[in-house]
Each structure stands twice: as structure tokens, then as C-alpha cells.
Design brief:
about 400 residues; two-stranded antiparallel sheet; globular; disordered N terminus
Length: about 400
């Protein structure tokens, strides 16, 4: 059974508040009608009680002013979602899937496909929103069951000039951020390639212009891109370029591992995602280019992406995004695309996220938190449950304070 959600008449738009009506498979007419009524009521409430539809730019609230306008507000959210959510997500598909799953009959126990599991994970992240106050979420409920989350101003914006769809702006933000971050990295990535940042590339690589001599055309970038299981030699690089050796997202490149890491087929997990280049790119992306080669937690100048997003800890998706950007940055390809020959970036992205399943990879999260946010980040502090070490200044100060309070209590 399939239902199409559309809002009641009375001047309301004919479709659910996305770019098109959402077809929900296996949804009972009763559930579809209930959701239709909830959305219709929300729209009417927004029209009757919300701000005037004729607001000028000077009437936009402080959040929208700070982000440059309503479209920039949602595009900013799209950028945030891409960097720590799902870089390859179709926001319309994710939301359609989430709504459909949320109001499915309770007895539906069909096992989800791998693609549906990815959509489910993206939907859960999207529905929760982010710590940033740039986008506030309102939750729609049916009989006390969570159904869907919408931005507070989503319905109102549908009636703005040209009937612009906020989710098209979010999609545009997701699309744009890949190219924006790739462009930012291209300007400085060569400075991050060597473990000894004072050493010089040999031969030198032109930092400006096309990347034709990057990738497997240069020994340094070729070594970093070469799967760990292959011998890092010019013969290997030539065979990869000639298509004689495969290069897919299922084989992990050397840059994922520490410099000089030796391939061990019996322990592929050891050292993965600890590569120095990844750490530099993570600091570049979330704290800014000036932080990449500095001490852990260093930041200078304008707020970095982490601060803008309200982000206080790295996540598996954020780390996977860093790896995707690193792979593309040192390749010989100039234009961002989801595929590079047989290498699929989406597959690579989800393969890395899979390393954190079942609570795995906590040491990796701690490593990135230390370098991006510094050793005094919230997550590092949580580990210090035993208090300051005996004999330290902080321990002495605490003991003195306790003694002083005891004397005051005794005097009373």
C-alpha cells in the first residue's frame, strides 16, 4: 500500500513541505491521514501566528542576519551536515526514508538493505540536528511517537518569494562544501605531505594550476595513495596507472597509517587512521589552515568550522570526511566527483565509518580530539576521574581550600 502525503486545502500548498509529495510505501491510510493533519495544522499555525510573510531583510532575525539571509542559513546547515554527517547524502531521499520508516506499521520487521541502513543512520543524525543554534528543530509527533523533525521556519519559508524550498538550500550547501574544502586544501596540502614538514618535496610539485603531476605521477603522493598491501615502487604506480593493478575503495591507502607503517595482513586495524597527513587535514578543516602544522588544539584568528558548528568532539563521520578530502586532495583529479576510475568515494566513506561499529575506534576519536581540540578538550577531561596527581599545584590548592573551609565550619 502506498500513500502520498498532501496537506488539506484552504490555501495551503498541495504537497508535504519538501520539494515534492512523499510517497510512503506500506503505510496505513490512517497513519498517512494523521501525518497529513499534523502537517496541515503546523502550516496553518505558522501562517496565522508566525511572522508576516512580507518581512523585509531588516526584519530577519539575528541568526539569519549573521548567516547572510535565510538561504545562507540553510546552506550553512548543509555545509555542517556534509562535514560531520553524510557528504554524499541526498537530503530529500534521507528525509523521505526517515518519514516513511517513522510511521510504518509496528509489525513491519523487514531487514534493511545496506543502502537503507545508511539512509537510516543519516536520517537519525539529520533529525537530531547539531549543537549549533543556526538551525532549530521542531518535532512532529503522532500519538506520542516521533515522526519527523522540521526546521521551525521550514513551513514559513515555503510561502516566501518564489516559494523557495529550504531543503534545496541544504542540498546546495552539501554540494558546495565538497568543492570549497577541496579548494582550500589544494592551496596548502603539499605542505602537509611529509612527516618532516621542513623537508622539501623531491621533485618539486607546482602548487598552483592543474594537478596533472600529482597522484600516481609523483613519488610522494603516489606513496601516500598506494594501497598498503602493494609494494610502494615506481613499478606499482605504473601498473596502477595502466590499469594492471586495481585501485578500489576497499583497499586502504598508506596515508591512513603512520609514516613507515609495515603491512600486516593479520592485523590491518593496527595504526589505521593514525596517519600524520590525516591529522593535518582534520586540523585544517575544523580549526583552520593556520592550525594544521601547529601544536594540538592550536587556533588563531576567526572561528574555525568546529566552533561554527558547535562541535566539541570528532565523530566517525567527521573523520571519514577528512579521509575522503585527503584522498581527493592528493590525487591528480582537479574536479570533485564521487568516482575516480574504479575508486568510489562514497564506498570509501562508509567503509571507514564501519571501522567504528560496535563501539570500536575510541582510541581514534581520542587521538583526533587531542589534535583538533587540544588535550584539555571535554573528552580528554572526562578521562581524569581520579583528579589531579598528588603533589601538583592543583592538588595542593584543592587541599588548602578544603582545610580553609574546615576551619571556617569549625568556627561556626
Amino acid at each position: 500500500m502506498s500513500s502520498s502525503l498532501s496537506c488539506p486545502s484552504s490555501g495551503l500548498p498541495s504537497s508535504f513541505p519538501f520539494s515534492s509529495s512523499i510517497a510512503l510505501s506500506n503505510v496505513s491510510p490512517k497513519a498517512a491521514t494523521a501525518l497529513t493533519n499534523v502537517v496541515g495544522n503546523l502550516l496553518r499555525e505558522t501562517i496565522n501566528n508566525g511572522p508576516s510573510l512580507k518581512r523585509t531583510a531588516t526584519d530577519v532575525d539575528d541568526e539569519e542576519k549573521e548567516n547572510g539571509g535565510r538561504d545562507d542559513l540553510y546552506m550553512t546547515y548543509g555545509r555542517q551536515y556534509a562535514r560531520s554527517g553524510d557528504i554524499f547524502a541526498s537530503i530529500d531521499d534521507v528525509i523521505q526514508f526517515g518519514v516513511a520508516r517513522a510511521i510504518l506499521d509496528s509489525d513491519d520487521e523487514r531487514e534493511l538493505t545496506p543502502i537503507e541502513l545508511q539512509c537510516k543512520a543519516s536520517w537519525e543524525l539529520c533529525a537530531l540536528g547539531y549543537p549549533s543554534s543556526a538551525l532549530r528543530w521542531s518535532h512532529l509527533l503522532i500519538n506520542g511517537v516521533f515522526v519527523v523533525a522540521l526546521p521551525e521556519r521550514c513551513c514559513h519559508l515555503l510561502f516566501c518569494a518564489h516559494f523557495c524550498n529550504p531543503f534545496s538550500w541544504i542540498s546546495e550547501g552539501i554540494h558546495n562544501v565538497c568543492a570549497e574544502d577541496a579548494s582550500s586544501l589544494k592551496a596548502v596540502i603539499l605542505d602537509y605531505l611529509l612527516l618532516d614538514t621542513k623537508a622539501h618535496l623531491n621533485p618539486l610539485i607546482k602548487q598552483k594550476g592543474k594537478k596533472a603531476d600529482w597522484g600516481f605521477q609523483h613519488p610522494v603522493t603516489a606513496n601516500l595513495l598506494c594501497p598498503l598491501k602493494y609494494d610502494a615502487s615506481q613499478r606499482t604506480y605504473s601498473n596502477i596507472l595502466a590499469g594492471k593493478k586495481s585501485l578500489t575503495a576497499y583497499d586502504f591507502p598508506r596515508f591512513l597509517y603512520p609514516d613507515g607503517h609495515v603491512y600486516n595482513p593479520d592485523d590491518m586495524e593496527a595504526g589505521i587512521l593514525h596517519g600524520h597527513l590525516l591529522i593535518c587535514v582534520a586540523k585544517h578543516n575544523f580549526q583552520g589552515p593556520t592550525a594544521a602544522l601547529e601544536r594540538p588544539g592550536y587556533h588563531c584568528g576567526q572561528r574555525g568550522n568546529a566552533a561554527l558548528m558547535g562541535m566539541i568532539t570528532m565523530t566517525p563521520r567527521a573523520i571519514a570526511y577528512v579521509a575522503v578530502q585527503t584522498q581527493f586532495a592528493i590525487s591528480a583529479v582537479d574536479t570533485w566527483a564521487p568516482d575516480e576510475g574504479n575508486f568510489n568515494y562514497n564506498t570509501f566513506f562508509w567503509a571507514l565509518i564501519g571501522l567504528f561499529n560496535d563501539g570500536e575506534g575510541e582510541d581514534i576519536i581520542k587521538l583526533y580530539n587531542k589534535h583538533v581540540f587540544g588535550p584539555t578538550s571535554a573528552t580528554e577531561g572526562e578521562a581524569d576521574v581520579d583528579g589531579p596527581p598528588e603533589g601538583s599545584d592543583l592538588a595542593c590548592l584543592k587541599a588548602q581550600c578544603q582545610a580553609k573551609r574546615a576551619r571556617v565550619d569549625g568556627a561556626l
